[in-house]
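ok so for the tutorial part 2 we go from a plain amino acid sequence to predicted C-alpha cells. step 1 is just haveing the sequence, like this:
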Amino acid sequence: MSTEAFIELNQVGKKYPTEVFAGVKNVTALIPKGKVVAIVGESGSGKSTLLKLIYGLLSPDEGIVSFKGKPVLGPDEKLIPGHDSMKMVTQDFSLNTYAKVYDNVASMLPNTNLKYKEEKSWEIMKFLRIDHLFNKRVSDLSGGEQQRVAIARAIITEPEVLLMDEPFSQVDTPLKTHLRADIKRLSHDLGITVILVSHDPVDGLSLADEIIVLNKGEVVETGSPEQLYNHPQYAYTSRLLADCNLLTKDEAKKLGLKSEKNMLAIYPEWVELKWSWSSKNFILIDSFFKGVHEELLLEKDGVKIRALNKNIGSFKKGASVAVVLEKFLEFAD
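step 2 — the prediction. this is what the C-alpha cells look like for a chain of 333 residues:
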C-alpha cells in the first residue's frame, strides 16, 4: 500500500445480509489530497456504504481503508466511530433545530479560548455566507440555509476531509449552483478534501475534480469529469453521466450505423437536425420544453432516440425530421 496516498482503499468489501447483493466489493481506489471527489452510481450501487467505510462508521469485511498510510479504525476498534481528521455531513444535517445558528456553529469548539471561539465562528459563518442568520433558530431556516449551517459545524474544527452524503437532496434547484460553488471554494481555499455521494450526475460533472463510478458495489471506472463524459469505458457510465441514447447493435443497424460492438451510445446533443446526403428521416413522436431548448423524441423503424433542438417549436408532432448521426460511442457491454 502506498504511503504517499492520502486516502487509499485496497480491495475493500462490505456485504449486508440480504438475498440480493448489497454493499461494496473489491473496491480499490486512491483519493488525492485537497480535491473534490464525487462517488456516483445508481440507487443501491453502494455509494453511501463506501462513504461510511472511508469515515470509519463501518468496518470492512475484507480489505483495508487507510488515511495517510494508516488504517482507518471502524466501530469494532474505536469507541466513538468516525476518523478524528474527518467530518461527515449527513442528509438529516444533525443540527439542534431549536438553537440559533451561531450556537450551532460555536458549540463545536471548546470554551478554553472564548475569543478564538467567537472569532472562528464568525469567520466560518461569513465564509459560508450565513453570518446574517446568526440570531435565527435553525427550525426557521430553509433547507439550503440549514445545509450551510451543517457544513459550517463540520469545517470549524478544521478537518482534513469533509464527507457529504447527498448534499443537494434537500436543496432547491436554484440554490444548488451556489452551494456547489461554496463547496468547491472551501476545498480550494481551505485545502479540505471533499468526498461526496450524489445520485445527480450534474453534481459530479460540475463540481468534482475526480469521479468514482460504482455499479452493483464495484468500481466501474474513475477519472476526471471531462474524461468520463467524453471517453467512458462502459455504457453504464455514459448512461449515468449523460442520460444518452443507448442502442443495441441491431438497433444501430436499422439507423445505418455500423459497429462491431454490442452497444452504441449517442448523446442527445450529438444528434444533428439537418438535411445532408447522409441524413435519415425520423418521425417526431413528442417534444418536451426545457427552457433554452426542447428535447425531441424521434423514431425510425421502431428505434427511438432523443435530440436537442434550440429552435423551439420548429417541428410539429408527427413531422418528418432529417437527422444526421455521425458521432457515437461504442461499447462491448
